[in-house]
Write a structure and sequence with these properties.
alpha+beta; disordered C terminus
């Protein structure tokens, strides 16, 4: 073996040793290239001691087989540990940024070794690349969790106000005729039904009116008989035409007087049916001047200003009865909501929900009846009248209430609390529990913000636990290793 052959073999063995150590012997290859430059550029065949066929991707432009040997499965060109890229990683092994709608990763997610030769999910340095945060036991106790909640997405405003009686459902009772109170047993607050007797009056004026009705009925009957007699005599040419006409005029006058007496009793509060029966019976208490005053509506007595034995005039206010199944609310809408509120009221009836501190957890249906004619100067608010349903008479006038007025109707949406939804570079995300003390960053598509709630359109499933109180601490921990930035070079 000559000296040249021995040198070439030695260099070849040295190259193999260097390749196994991960070092590319550029200088050695350069020297070899210098020694055999004459045949390396144009010939596909190999130099002495080299095996060259048609150049493959692992050969350089000279056809020399001294490119880096196939890398170990868990290293890239720079020696970073990436293994065979797992799902969610690019060709270099770096984690893709999770997208909205991506399914939750499998249980073996993050088990591929990182550059530190441990599973990525267990590496305190590299787990941030795949969006995972580990929380210690002490910090874990400070976190709180929530799940998606379905809530109405209707655009609404909150107003405060005070309950009052519905003016259209309050009935005031006055004495229809002067007299003396014979009986009254109801107290303020008592429930009454429509038609129930509230009190009884004794009135000489009423008794006289009933007697006048009987008198006028008799006169009418007599005038009618005389008219009929004169008509028969006229047909027989016994009576004159003048006598017939005078009889007809007397009957018409008697009828007018009877109708006036009848209407007077109706004004005194006697029903039409009862007035019609008075002419056929004289045992009715009306002839003794007794008048029972019934309740005009079902409800509760809210006012009483009369006692037994009191003498009352026809304009005396005796009782008030109110229907409490419907109440009126007087609320104040802030000036900034006036434009949208008035615009919606011109288009449709505006529904509302009312709640009172006295009855926590209960909601009462309501509707905005009408806005006030002017802004209140002192408070810069617009008065609103609300019709509030109160079928069980739970609410009472005088209570303060809060009302949510729905200005636009939308489909219900899923929501999370505002502290659960974070943002980074304009993108919203949350942290969901992956397993035990590991939490995974998940991008979300957000909807409308309603007070303390944020609408979630996509990105979170109903069964997933989302970090709410303490989510910002997880974000702060993540920012020290910019999530999704890849391994540190």
């Amino acid at each position: 073996m000559n000296t040249r052959t021995f040198t070439l073999i030695s260099l070849f063995i040295l190259c193999l040793l260097c390749f196994q150590q991960g070092v590319v012997p550029h200088l050695i290859c350069a020297e070899e290239h210098h020694d055999e430059a004459a045949t390396s550029h144009d010939q596909p065949s190999a130099h002495t001691g080299h095996d060259h066929a048609t150049p493959k991707p692992e050969h350089d432009h000279d056809g020399h087989k001294h490119a880096a040997p196939e890398p170990e499965p868990d290293h890239d060109h720079a020696g970073h540990a990436h293994a065979v890229p797992e799902s969610g990683h690019d060709h270099a092994g770096h984690a893709h940024e999770a997208r909205v709608g991506d399914p939750m990763p499998d249980s073996d997610f993050g088990l591929a070794p990182c550059e530190h030769r441990v599973p990525t999910i267990d590496c305190d340095t590299c787990r941030y690349e795949i969006g995972v945060v580990k929380v210690g036991s002490q910090a874990l106790a400070l976190l709180s969790f929530e799940r998606l909640q379905t809530a109405s997405a209707a655009e609404s405003i909150e107003v405060n106000g005070e309950l009052a009686f519905d003016e259209n459902r309050v009935r005031c009772l006055t004495a229809p005729v002067s007299g003396r109170v014979a009986s009254v047993s109801l107290r303020v607050g008592d429930a009454v039904r429509e038609g129930q007797t509230l009190l009884v009056l004794q009135s000489p004026e009423l008794a006289q009116a009933a007697l006048d009705l009987l008198k006028k009925q008799s006169e009418l009957d007599l005038a009618g008989k005389k008219r009929d007699r004169e008509a028969r005599l006229r047909e027989k040419k016994i009576a004159s035409e003048q006598e017939k006409q005078e009889a007809e005029a007397a009957w018409e006058l008697a009828k007018i007087e009877f109708d006036n007496a009848r209407r007077r009793l109706l004004i005194f509060g006697v029903s039409e049916k009862r007035v019609a029966a008075l002419t056929r019976q004289t045992a009715d208490p009306v002839f003794r001047g007794e008048l029972a005053i019934p309740s005009p509506t079902s409800g509760r007595v809210i006012f009483r200003d009369v006692n037994i034995g009191d003498t009352v005039s026809s304009d005396k206010e005796l009782l008030k009865v109110a229907d409490l199944t419907h109440l009126q609310g007087i609320a104040q809408a802030h000036e900034k909501h006036v434009a949208m509120l008035l615009s919606t009221l011109r288009q449709r009836t505006v529904a509302a929900e009312v709640r009172a501190d006295a009855f926590p957890g209960q909601l009462f249906k309501a509707a905005v009846v009408s806005p006030g004619p002017a802004i209140t100067v002192e408070t810069r608010t617009l008065p609103l009248r609300l019709d509030i349903e109160n079928p069980e008479e739970t609410l009472r006038p005088g209570l303060f209430f809060q009302a949510r007025i729905n200005l636009t109707d939308r489909q219900p949406q899923s929501t999370l609390s505002r502290e659960a939804v974070l943002s980074d570079e304009g993108k919203s995300f949350v942290f969901v529990r992956f397993r035990d003390d590991l939490f995974l960053r998940r991008p979300v598509t957000t909807g409308r913000v309603d007070g303390s709630k944020v609408g979630i359109i996509d990105g979170v499933q109903p069964e997933q636990e989302v970090v709410s109180n303490g989510a910002f601490l997880l974000k702060s921990d993540v920012l020290r290793e910019k999530m999704g930035a890849g391994c540190a070079d």
